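Sample entry (225 residues):
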Amino acid sequence: MKKIITAAILSICVLPVTAYAADFEDIQGHWAAEIITNLAESGVVHGISDTEFNPEGTVTRAEFLKMALSAAGIEETEFRSGECLDVTASDWYGPYVQSALDKGLVPDDMIGDCASKIVETEDGSKAVYSGYFMGDEPIKREEMAYITQSVYQYSRDEETMNDMELPIDMHFTDLSSVSSWAFQGVRYAYANDFIAGMSDGTFRPQETATRAQAATIISNLLKKI
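Predicted structure, serialized as tokens:
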């Protein structure tokens, strides 16, 4: 089923304070300044104040999941209490986690103490998970890569699936640090130009992603879609 990108993309945010990138004093000379500028001027990302974007600050799992789903035009799902891991009705990101779980976009390895069972409903069978998503935890680079590729694949239909690049060999010096469950997702994300390595030849999969890195990968996802 082909997904349609709507104006909802313009509501994507990292934090709630709105400002144009021209007002962000802390991105001057930053490697992602142009990317942040373009996204901010389109309303895709926002700053933490009128004058700060905080490009080296962290992004939580929930924040990035919302951005990725919104960029791909994947709508949130009504939150169902008791079916959504450690998420509660008071958590703003509940509908996004629920949607991602329903569509299989979050790997079991990103769920602490993960367990699932198949439940029969009027609409057919579905998996109900238990465990911990830990949405307020900073997201790691390998997790960000995996989620982006997972969301991108879901957004493709049979015709446009052929546009997806096949995984290619990576030559980062720290490949052994990539978790086994995330390896293929990282390969695909790298092949599709969603994420790149560092200037020193490393990938740093276990590092927490920065706001600048998150903005870059969302920009790349929007271009691809």
